[in-house]
């Protein structure tokens, strides 16, 4: 059983490495264009809502903690606690998406969504539009991972409620946790790159 | 189960550290440090990522091969970023200047 558990976790890690490369392509695009059009990227970065971004970072960290406590509860045979922590994780994930939606709405209203209606008063609006394209692509892909994560945690919570997991068998809870934390790590990098490092002084 | 289990106390310690680091990185971003603001922000992000990976994802308590896979993944990402940049940063050479 122990070997099965380790193999499953290892397989999940292999998948997460492919995810590193998936997001890595976008981080690479960001790096190349940030270096090439630094001033346009700084101008775009000024439009980020740092308060909501920081709040979302805190929400995601909290959700990682509830996830880790859920896995711990499954390991220590506490069925009700496992379900409760998994539901809390889902709730925090939804709060994150809600705050993200508010931010998207703000950008949409301000005409900062890339496309025919894009409008920006700055030195280089074309390349600021590139910044916003990357912003929406990167946070959008991250949000998609969050939505998938919420569905998976929901499924796991259902099985936990049905009593499928115990200290002997809790592999699904554990590898779902690995996925959830990975999505948290991606945000840990997205937050400074998109919101913080170009703040005007 | 023979696997070593991290305690709830450890998780709480990591949790508080992560929140404090988030506060620090936001506070530092409000100070003008020129190019160093990116360096500091990414250093703090890496410390946070390490805490999540080592404790929440329990790599600290996992077989060594897990760590090897992660390092290989990051190394490959490094190749992607570094070689792309050697291309883009050196394209202008010979175009401008002499």
Give structural attributes.
heterodimer, A: mainly alpha, 81% helix, elongated, B: 98 residues, 0% strand
Describe the structure.
Chain A has 201 residues and is mostly helical. Chain A is 81% helix and 0% strand. Chain A contains six helices and no strands. The mean pLDDT of chain A is 94. Chain B is mainly α and 98 residues long. The longest helix of chain B is centred in the last third of the chain and has 27 residues. Chain B is flat and about 60 Å long. In chain B, 21% of the residues are buried.
Mean pLDDT reading of chain A: 94
- What characteristic shape of chain B results from the CA principal axes? flat
| Number of separate helices of chain B | 3
Structural class of chain A: mainly alpha
Strand content of chain A: under 5%
Looking at the chains present, what oligomeric state does this protein adopt? heterodimer
**Percentage of residues in strands of chain B:** under 5%
End-to-end separation of chain A: 56 Å
Share of helix among residues of chain A? over 70%
| DSSP summary: helix tally of chain A | 6
* Biggest sheet features of chain B: none
What's the story with the biggest beta sheet of chain A? none
What is Rg of chain A?
19 Å
Averaged pLDDT of chain B: 88
Helix fraction bin of chain B: over 70%
What is the rounded distance between the termini of chain B?
69 Å
């Amino acid at each position: 059983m122990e070997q099965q558990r380790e193999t499953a976790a290892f397989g999940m890690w292999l998948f997460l490495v492919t995810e590193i490369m998936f997001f890595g392509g976008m981080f690479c695009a960001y790096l190349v264009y940030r270096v090439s059009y630094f001033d346009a990227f700084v101008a775009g970065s000024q439009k980020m809502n740092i308060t909501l971004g920081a709040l979302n970072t805190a929400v995601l960290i909290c959700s990682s903690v509830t996830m880790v406590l859920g896995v711990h509860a499954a390991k220590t045979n506490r069925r009700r606690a496992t379900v409760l922590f998994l539901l809390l994780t889902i709730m925090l994930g939804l709060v994150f998406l809600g705050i993200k939606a508010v931010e998207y709405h703000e950008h949409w209203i301000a005409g900062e969504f890339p496309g025919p209606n894009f409008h920006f008063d700055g030195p280089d609006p074309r390349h600021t539009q590139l910044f916003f394209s990357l912003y929406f692509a990167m946070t959008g892909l991250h949000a998609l991972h969050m939505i998938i994560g919420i569905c998976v945690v929901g499924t796991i919570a259902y099985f936990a409620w049905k009593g499928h997991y115990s200290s002997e068998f809790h592999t699904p809870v554990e590898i779902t946790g690995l996925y959830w934390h990975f999505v948290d790590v991606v945000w840990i990098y997205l937050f400074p790159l998109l919101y913080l490092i170009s703040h005007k002084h | 189960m023979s696997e070593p289990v991290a305690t709830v106390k450890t998780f709480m310690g990591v949790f508080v550290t992560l929140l404090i680091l988030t506060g620090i990185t936001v506070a530092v971003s409000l100070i003008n440090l020129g190019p160093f603001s990116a360096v500091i922000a990414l250093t703090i992000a890496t410390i946070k990522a390490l805490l999540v990976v080592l404790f929440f994802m329990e790599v600290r308590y996992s077989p060594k091969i897990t760590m090897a896979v992660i390092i290989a993944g990051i190394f490959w990402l490094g190749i992607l970023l570094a070689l792309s940049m050697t291309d883009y940063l050196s394209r202008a050479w010979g175009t401008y200047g002499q």
